[in-house]
UniProtKB/TrEMBL annotation:
GO terms for cellular component: plasma membrane. Signal peptide: none annotated. This is TRAP transporter permease. Keywords: Cell inner membrane, Cell membrane, Membrane, Transmembrane, Transmembrane helix, Transport. The lineage of its organism: Bacteria, Pseudomonadati, Pseudomonadota, Gammaproteobacteria, Oceanospirillales. It comes from Marinomonas algarum. Its main location: membrane. Part of the tripartite ATP-independent periplasmic (TRAP) transport system. It is found in: Cell inner membrane. The chain crosses the membrane at residues 32-50, 56-74, 86-106, 112-132, 144-167, 187-211, 231-248, 310-332, 366-397, 417-435, 447-472, 478-496, 557-576, 611-629, 635-653, 683-700.
Length: 712
């Protein structure tokens, strides 16, 4: 076991160095930050469990509290961190944030009593609130997001009316814009803010308690024990550890830093190239945001957008996430074979039974969480009870008991971890408000569809490009929110129409849905019953008025299938939003791994991008197969052939499976991968691809064994 995991949690004292601000202005400031963090944690627990307060008040308090933390933790400029002028400026920001909350509580009713007509104080407070949001986001995330917010806000009141064509917007008054941005539940304090102070905070706090209880060390130790006997074991430690850690942390960079300091040196000592080791950690940590239950806050936002339950979201996300980690694991195995990484360090690896015996209690809170969610409790309630379960479970082990100091530390760390996310999500609410107010989302969806020529494949390509561009300046969650608002309708329509066309072509369209076509071509009913060529089906569907297409989809596909298609559209966008983590030129997760491995950041990013190919393959399979929401038999078949198909594709890409491949078997392996991955092929074609893969695999394995010396 690691040294950290052997230290009893109950003996740990509160370490204020963890809360040392970047101002370095003295212990009193660290104590203030620590105390404020605990206060915010307790307040949010109270709000999410007992309190019945207006959501506008809660959202304003949420922004003010975590905005204060950001102002104290992050200076306006690093050069000014010891400046008294900077501290005075930060103090003014804190007082303005407090005043903003007080103003909403005391004077909101007065605004409505005046018929929603602004007076001078309304103008001042709402304007300052927007400016505070811009400044705090600039401090935490750079200039790109404030610039995007300014562009969005000025579009509504200034330059939207200058545009011609589909993006023309007549404009709103500044007063209306400020009202919708500040006082209404559509802007800063709208649904995104509500998700932030409820679901996101409670699960980040739950993750902080898990880490403080020693669960992080347990995850690493369990991963090392499980992978110790595997070829390329240290690489699989990174894959397993990052997947398990990411399932509760939801942050790819934090995942890389926390697990990479252990896994990257392990991989290097075992014989993996340094750049490959860093790339594996970056790719695996990126997958942590795809792994239920947290998914980097994506699951909660997706549930809000689609109106599909959180439990359903995380259940359908599990198999795609597993496929992603398998794809990274295949690269690890291939490189391990090629680099002769056979023996792994087993001198400090502990048996699985020993790890489970000493740390089984860490599994209890996760079991409680899953059980409560399955029983239908809200995610916030389930997270709250699971936090209590972490504390109680810690007393089942003499090494990890959480005393009062550890509990306070966990609450403070959870609040600190939440600070940048909170101000970011509140600020992004301004952009979402503009998109919904102006109808730009629908316009953008139509534009994407036109650019792609109605092709689902090219639409996904365009969304991927847009996500990469946005990801250069936006964090993953913010990128998903913006892209989901803009392009999800287009993806949803195209996926639904593709399934509808297949039913029309095969003659399986329900009778109730066929009746809709009487409006456009009564003679088509007989043809629909027998089936028709795809071109004829497309022409017939094109005649259906847009107002009736929604009803047609509901009748043909059913409410549950329509809901799953909507989830699929959002899941595709969420997956594609992750690519900025590992795709140059801006790939923070890869850069963090490169810093640990001491490798060139950009070249490490290229390696991580190659290893993360599942980020592109799996979304395509979501679009063209029932990977989301399919029946168990279909999912089992899909998972099996996709798994083997991705292994074959990795071998074809690397030119190495069990041994080096010459041009002919490499080409054959590529063909085999396509036969297994191509959507909706007959099972006998997939079986032929499987047989072809097995022949190449076994031939390579036999050849590989011949090259090994008796002492290897």
């Amino acid at each position: 076991m690691t040294a950290a995991s052997q230290k009893p949690a109950e003996s740990q004292e509160i370490n204020l160095e963890d809360f040392e601000t970047k101002h370095r202005s003295g212990l009193w400031l660290n104590r203030l930050v620590f105390s404020l963090s605990i206060f915010l944690a307790v307040a949010h627990i109270y709000i999410n469990t007992i309190a019945t307060l207006p959501e506008l008040w809660v959202s304003a308090f949420h922004f003010a509290g975590f905005g204060t933390l950001c102002a104290l933790l992050i200076p306006a400029n690093q050069k000014w961190r010891d400046s008294k002028v900077a501290m005075f400026f930060d103090t003014v920001i804190v007082l303005a944030l407090i005043g903003m909350v007080v103003y909403i509580v005391l004077f909101e009713d007065a605004l409505y009593a005046r018929g929603v007509t602004f007076n001078t104080s309304d103008w001042i407070v709402s304007s300052i609130a927007v400016l505070l949001s811009l400044e705090l986001i600039r401090r935490t995330s750079g200039w790109f997001i404030p610039f995007l917010i300014v562009i969005a806000l000025t579009y509504v009141v200034v330059w939207g009316s200058w545009l011609g064509g589909m993006f023309n917007f007549p404009g709103l008054s500044v007063e209306t814009l400020l009202y919708r941005s500040f006082f209404s539940t559509d802007g800063m304090f709208g649904s995104i803010s509500r998700i932030s102070w409820s679901f996101v905070f409670m699960f980040i706090l739950f993750g902080a308690f898990l880490v403080k209880s020693g669960a992080g060390d347990f995850i690493i130790d369990l991963s090392r024990s499980l992978a110790s006997k595997m070829i390329g074991g240290p690489g699989f430690v990174a894959v397993l550890g990052s997947g398990l850690m990411g399932s509760v942390s939801g942050s790819s960079v934090a995942n890389t830093v926390s697990t990479g300091v252990i896994t990257i040196p392990l991989m290097r000592r075992a014989g993996f190239p340094a750049r490959f080791a860093a790339g594996v950690e970056a790719a695996a940590s990126t997958g942590g945001q795809l792994m239920p239950p947290v998914m980097g806050a994506g699951a909660f936002i997706m549930a809000s957008y689609t109106q599909v339950s959180y439990v359903t979201i995380i259940s359908v996300a599990a198999i795609p996430a597993l496929l992603y980690f398998l794809s990274v694991g295949f690269f690890v195995r291939v490189e391990a074979k090629r680099s002769r990484v056979i023996a792994t360090e087993s001198d400090d690896a502990v048996k699985v039974s020993t790890v489970l015996k000493e740390g089984w209690h860490h599994i209890v809170p996760l079991g409680v969480l899953v059980a409560l969610l399955i029983q239908g409790f809200t995610p916030t309630y389930a997270a709250g009870i699971s936090i209590l379960a972490v504390i109680l479970a810690s007393f089942l082990s003499s090494k990890h008991r959480m005393g009062p100091a550890a509990i306070l530390d966990a609450m403070a760390q959870g609040a600190k971890n939440m600070s940048t996310t909170a101000v970011l999500l509140v600020g992004i609410g301004l952009v979402v408000n503009v998109i919904s107010t102006t109808g730009v989302g629908n316009t953008f969806s139509l534009l994407i569809t036109n650019w792609a020529g109605g092709s689902l494949f090219f639409t996904i390509i365009l969304v991927a490009i847009a996500s990469l561009i946005l990801g250069m300046g936006l964090p993953v969650t913010a990128s998903y929110i913006v892209l989901g608002t803009l392009s999800a309708p287009a993806l949803f329509n195209l996926i639904a129409e593709s399934q509808l066309l297949e039913m029309m072509a095969s003659g399986t369209l329900p009778e109730a849905a066929s009746a809709v076509f009487m409006l456009v071509d009564p003679a088509a009913l007989a043809t629909l019953a027998q089936g028709m060529p795809m071109e004829q089906a497309e022409a017939l569907l094109a005649q259906v008025p847009n107002d009736f297409k929604g009803m047609l989809m509901d009748q043909a596909l059913g409410a549950n299938s329509v809901a799953m298609i909507l989830v699929t559209a959002h899941m595709i966008i969420f997956w594609l939003s992750q690519d900025s983590n590992v795709t140059p030129p801006v790939c923070l997760t890869a850069f963090a791994a490169a810093a640990i491995a001491k490798t060139p950041p950009m070249r490490t990013g290229v390696t991580a991008w190659k290893l993360a190919k599942g980020l592109y393959i799996v979304p395509l399979l979501m679009a063209y197969t029932p990977l989301i929401g399919g029946d168990p038999e279909t999912l089992l078949r899909l998972t099996f052939f996709i798994t083997i198909g991705m292994y074959a594709l990795v071998g074809a890409m690397e030119g190495y499976l069990e041994d080096k491949l010459s041009i002919v078997p490499r080409a054959a392996l590529l063909v085999a991968s396509i036969m297994m991955l191509w959507p909706n092929l007959d099972i006998w074609i997939q079986a032929v691809g499987l047989v072809l893969f097995l022949i190449i695999f076994m031939t390579g394995n036999k050849s590989y064994k011949k090259t090994l010396s008796p002492t290897t």
